[in-house]
Amino acid sequence: MTIRETLEQWEIEYLSPYASHSKDSKGRLKEEEQCDIRTVFQRDRDRIIHCKAFRRLKDKTQVFLTPEGDHYRTRLTHTLEVSQNARTIARALRMNEELVEAIALGHDLGHTPFGHAGERALNRVCPLGFEHNEQSVRTVDRLEKSGKGLNLTIEVRDGILNHQTIGKPHTLEGKIVQLSDKIAYIHHDMDDAIRGGILKEADVPKEIGDVIGYTTNERLNHFIHDIVSTSFGKNEIRMSEPVAEAMKNLRRFMFERVYQNPEAKSEEGKAEVLMETLYLYYMKHVDDLPEEFLNLLSEGEPREKVVCDYVGAMSDRFAIAKYEEIYIPKSWHV
Length: 334
Fold this sequence. Notes:
- The protein has about 325 residues and is mainly α.
- It has helices at about 5-15, 40-50, 50-55, 75-95, 95-105, 115-125, 130-145, 155-160, 170-195, 205-210, 215-230, 240-260, 270-285, 290-300, 305-315, 315-325.
């Protein structure tokens, strides 16, 4: 018996009867030989961590564009916080922690530069539309490894695709990541807003604080404990009704005070113009795309989709550098 087979047997004996078992995975888009020491979900996690799209997350906006300070979240730190929240919940509920981790680490691989501002811009200017969850799946299926993709399992791809609130994951592990994503961004976005002077802890409405706490740490602790206690031993992952309602109200509060705050979002209009401009430029100058994207065109991919692939994959810094290279005059010298 290989190490992988031993781990698969351990899952069957130890994990919850409602957990996803590596041995029962629906497989990959392309069949490949199994690893002798890692389960399929462990391999997916490793492939995601080692891919280029994951590394670019370190220089992609989470909420605040180009903040002055080293302690504000980026898309990468957001991803790591989602993963940690999800793993804590999965371990407590005896769910498949490797599957949860792979989904969490991959859920935002297709996100644009400049956060949701970049996503809005591409969705508006591209006739095919742009949604970051769909682009995350396209990234792992088509864009990584020079068009070969990462060939992830069906379960991980499903969790990535369905991580947004409107999604319907087919595994409980996917549902854990879905909730963990919401917990993470509400928690750390409020923490960053307080750090930036946009909010104070005392601003949290009493009807919310009385249910889930008055500090970021209290709220995070309460959310995770509530999911574990409410879901333990059940074939579902959910919050209790009072906590779910408090989260809904807290999310509404964050939209009013942070996500739509003119001070916090003052640079987003510029970012959207930059993204639209780059998209339109490459639509007219498609030959300026890197070779791997030209290969996608030669294989019959729509120009609009491939230009979105390139512009959407950029980091904040690279997008700004490209804009300057194309549109900002250089000093003349002999």
